[in-house]
Amino acid sequence: MRSSFSRLTIAICCAGLLSPATQAQQLPSDSCVEPTLPPNMNRAPVANAFYRTATAYQKCLMEFADEQKALADTHSKAANAAIAKWNAFSKKHSAKQEASQQGTSGS
């Protein structure tokens, strides 16, 4: 009976790999506007304007990256909670199964 429980565990894990949630998904994209490099940056006002837009672009990208990291952290915590839930379920039912087997083999 123990081997069938192990096969069931493997089957459930493999089924999760094939679920729609794990299929390739469209990656989120930032809405940051990349600045255009001016043809002549020899003049201070042109160079200053470019550096301001480049700095704003960097800030936008970093904010986007921080938002994505926070989302990834949330998803990672949810995944870990699901794994812990499965482990608790598996441990509880394995202990019941072992106790049941000991009760029938001890007679």
Describe the structure in your own words:
The protein has 107 residues and is mostly helical. 0% of the residues are buried. The longest helix is centred in the C-terminal third of the chain and has 62 residues, at 44-105. The two termini are 18 Å apart. Helices cover 73% and strands 0% of the residues.
Strand content: under 5%
Mean pLDDT: 84
Tally of helical runs: 2
Percent helix: over 70%
Q: How many DSSP-defined strands?
A: 0
Helix-strand pattern? HH
Rg (C-alpha, Å): 27 Å
- Low-confidence spans: none
The structure class reads mainly alpha
Main sheet overview: none
Could you give the distance between the termini?
18 Å
What is the approximate shape? Answer: rod-shaped
Which properties best describe this structure?
107 residues, rod-shaped, mainly alpha
Précis, in short:
The protein is mainly α. Helices cover 73% and strands 0% of the residues.
Task: Itemize the secondary structure elements and their pairings.
Layout: H1 2-17, H2 44-105
